[in-house]
Amino acid sequence: MVQQRELDRGGNGEPDAFEGWYRRHSPVVARYCGRVLHDPGAGADVAQEVFLRAWLNADGYETEDHLRRWAFVVARNLCIDTMAVRKRVVLSSHVDDQPEPAPDTADTWLAGLDDAMRRVSTRNWVLLRLRYWTGLSYDDLAAMLGLSVPTTRVALHRARAALRRELTDA
């Protein structure tokens, strides 16, 4: 459902015109960013940045669908940037005086998977998260990444191979 008049008015700087589009799409973009970043608060911050950029560039969109696709591409890129910054930050761990209980096999395996996911490249991490944790289809993933479906399948194959190497090396 294209609401071209709304986008036209939004491009002319009318806040009410953009507000309807924002109300419809901001929860979805914020949830997407929160899932990708594993942090709903950071996801909401990234989503705000996406919609600020959309507002500042509102006159460049042809249709609501075009704007929505653009918003998800910008959200993905901002999430990647946020993750890259997080990888550079060294977090200190809190040490308790109490010993931790011995982890069970599932916890150990999940911890190993989490460690391996942290070691793969940011691009591979995003591909794997979008495909397996958010459940995007190959078609949706390809559209979001701006790639063809065959290229997306190859990229996912390589990402899985990189993860497999990290799991066997650990």
Structural topology:
Elements: H1 4-11, H2 15-37, H3 40-56, H4 64-88, H5 105-119, H6 122-133, H7 138-145, H8 149-169
Helix pairs in contact: 1-2, 2-3, 2-4, 3-4, 5-8, 6-8, 7-8
Query: What is the general shape?
Result: globular
Order of helices and strands: HHHHHHHH
User: Spans with pLDDT under 50 lasting ≥5 residues?
Assistant: 1-13, 88-98
Nearest-angstrom radius of gyration? Answer: 19 Å
Structural class: mainly alpha
Beta strand % = under 5%
Question: How far apart lie the N and C ends?
Answer: 49 Å
Average pLDDT figure: 75
Query: What percent of residues adopt helix (DSSP H or I)?
Result: over 70%
The number of strands is 0
Largest sheet: none
Task: Explain how this protein is built.
There is one protein chain. With 170 residues, the protein is mostly helical. It is 76% helix and 0% strand. The longest helix has 25 residues, at 64-88. It is globular and about 55 Å long. 19% of the residues are buried.
Structure summarized in a few sentences:
The chain has eight helices and no strands.
Main attributes?
8 helices
